[in-house]
Amino acid sequence: MINFTDVLETIKMINEENLDIRTITMGISLLDCCDSDIDRCCQKVYDKILAKASNLVATGEAIEKEYGIPIIHKRVSVTPAAMVLSACEVKDAVKFAKTLDRAAEAIGVNFIGGFSALVTKGFAGADLDVIRAIPEALSVTERVCASVNVGTTKGGINMDAVKLMGEVVKEAAIRTKDRQCIGAAKLVVFCNAPEDNPFMAGAFHGAGEADTVINVGVSGPGVVRSALARHPEANITEVAEIIKRTAFKITRVGQLVANEASRRLGCPFGIVDLSLAPTPAVGDSVAHILEEIGLEKCGCPGTTATLALLNDAVKKGGVMASSKVGGLSGAFIPVTEDAGMIAAAECGSLLIEKLEAMTAVCSVGLDMIVIPGDVSSETIAAIIADEAAIGMVNFKTTACRLIPAIGLKEGDRLEFGGLLGGGPVMRVNTASPAKFIHRSGQIPAPLQSLKN
Amino acid sequence: MRAVITVVGKDTVGILAKVSSLCAAHNVNVTDVTQSILQDLFVMVMLVDLSGIRSGYAVLADELTALGNEMGLSIKMMHEDIFNSMHRI
Question: Quick check: is A200 in a domain?
């Protein structure tokens, strides 16, 4: 017989502590959809997505029902659009984005990722066409997510792309200013972007991946926090151990669901992303875990150390629970999607500068941060450059998802609703980095890249 | 295939009878039952064998949820693998 207390523990995790599978993401290669004619290319893309992912949502729901574990999102990631469009004579990127949007709607997924370009060392093929089309594409589609990789540890940082992305982020917000600037919330600028990431908005299906693949992202900040709350007297070594054990259990569920989804969809299992992904719901916050460890408010001194401990313990627990681990794997700190982060930002405890330090020790980067609408595109580019530099030097993925709140200033709020949440406009240093950004060129790959 | 049915809520007369009758009506065999009162809450865990189930898994799961709503209890049926994978290496 299955142990009585084990059963109750699992039920409690799901019912009271928001344990869920955050996403089952099917990666689909579109490399075989390349065509010199844009219309034929779009038709092939549409047909392939429908052929591969029509059963994705129904399969996810069936697994959810059978195993009793909520699966929040079923999503699709595709080959970076710039690669597919390179073969077209007319590189109409907006038409391509609309095709992705229609396909996503037809199969019933809420987001499709891969309106992307990888431009670490320069622009080729349709890279510039895709990047320049991002603001329009994100304003005329509902479900398409865009990402651009501007740097890697091996290649350095493309400062021309960084400068351009400062403008693109701002333009994406301006074009959607009547919709809470939502365009910028669907756009990620990466350094060291992973090719198997199941999480939006940065998911795309890398060129080295199989034709189709199932990647799963787990969640469970609430479970970790509750486990820690049961041991208020534990020392830090014990805290790390508790997090590790909890992460193991969470990830095992992810692995189970990934295997089952892969089997039912007849599609190879890719990776489990060991992440603590918060939502704005009460009891589903990464900031609250840090506060449970002993901070009065997230953002105060000690935040970076507690986050480093959390992030490492999550990976150590998760890695043994899964046969293949990948994606972003680590604690996420998206400000508007985390009730504790929102509260900390509102009371002035959490600042962008502290968030930047936090990104050096955890998954991803400056994520879902609302900044004043009058911040210049050069300043946005410079924030992107800082974040990319942290990723490049530390051999880790970093990203920026900044949302310029057009027409609003520090202290005002944006409200996206749903899992994207909402949050206060945060203060940005106003001294100008314009000269640095306008120099253009390339930050050469750092010494860390010379590992051979 | 085996599943675990959990019942959580206020103790009342006939919980075990009603849940097991529903299982029997679907030709589902109850192989083990454990129940306890935890902090005034009635908790029952039932291991069932679904190999002879006449209707589909989803039909029984929905009927169990409906029975729970009717009796003011939370009744869930979950595949046993979720517990095995989470708690056993």
Answer: no
Q: Are residues A140 and A222 in the same domain?
A: no
Helix (H, G, I), strand (E, B) or coil at A202: coil
Q: What percentage of chain A carries pLDDT values higher than 90?
A: 90
Q: Across the interface, do B81 and A8 touch by the CB < 8 Å criterion?
A: no
Q: How far is B21 from chain A (nearest CA, A)?
A: 21
B chain contacts of residue A17, beta-carbon cutoff 8 Å:
none
- A100 and A236 in a single domain? The answer is no
Which residues have CB under 8 Å from A314's CB, separation 6+?
Answer: A224, A243, A244, A247, A274, A275, A276, A330, A331
Element counts in chain B: helices (H) and strands (E): 3, 4
A177 and A226 part of one domain: no
Residue A443 structural domain: 217-449
Same domain, A254 and A387: yes
pLDDT number for residue A418: 85
Among A330, A321, A231, A233, residue whose Cα is nearest residue A273: A330
Q: Please determine, for residue A169, whether its predicted confidence score (pLDDT) is greater than 80.
A: yes
Model confidence at A80, pLDDT cuts 50, 70, 90, reads very high
In chain A, the residue whose alpha carbon lies closest to the alpha carbon of B78 is A67
| A86 assigned to some structural domain | yes
Q: Please check whether residues A229 and A142 belong to one and the same domain.
A: no
A residues 4..23 contacting B (CB < 8 A): 4, 6-11, 15
Distance CA A65, CA B9 (A): 21
Whole-number pLDDT of residue A417: 87
Q: Among B38, B45, B77, B80, which would you mutate to test the A interface (most chain A Cβ atoms within 10 Å of its Cβ)?
A: B45
- So what's the architecture of B2-87 in CATH? 2-Layer Sandwich (3.30)
Residue A1 pLDDT: 59
What is the average pLDDT across A15-24?
90
Q: Which of helix, strand or coil describes residue B50? A: coil
Same domain, A340 and A432: yes
Q: State whether A133 and A187 are in the same domain.
A: yes
Give the global pTM.
0.93
Contacts of A68 in chain B (CB under 8 A): 76-79, 82
Clarify whether residues A99 and A223 are in a common domain. Answer: no
> Which residues are CB-contacts of A220 (< 8 A; sequence separation ≥ 6)?
A13, A17, A18, A19, A20, A246, A247, A250, A276
CATH code (residue A72): 3.20.70.20
In chain B, whose CA is at the least distance from the CA of A251?
B86
Q: Which value does ipTM take for this structure?
A: 0.89
- The answer as to whether A207 is a domain residue is no
Chain B hits for A253, CB-CB cut-off 8 Å, are 82, 85-86
User: pLDDT of A181-222, one tens digit each?
Assistant: 999 999 999 999 999 999 999 999 999 999 999 999 998 899
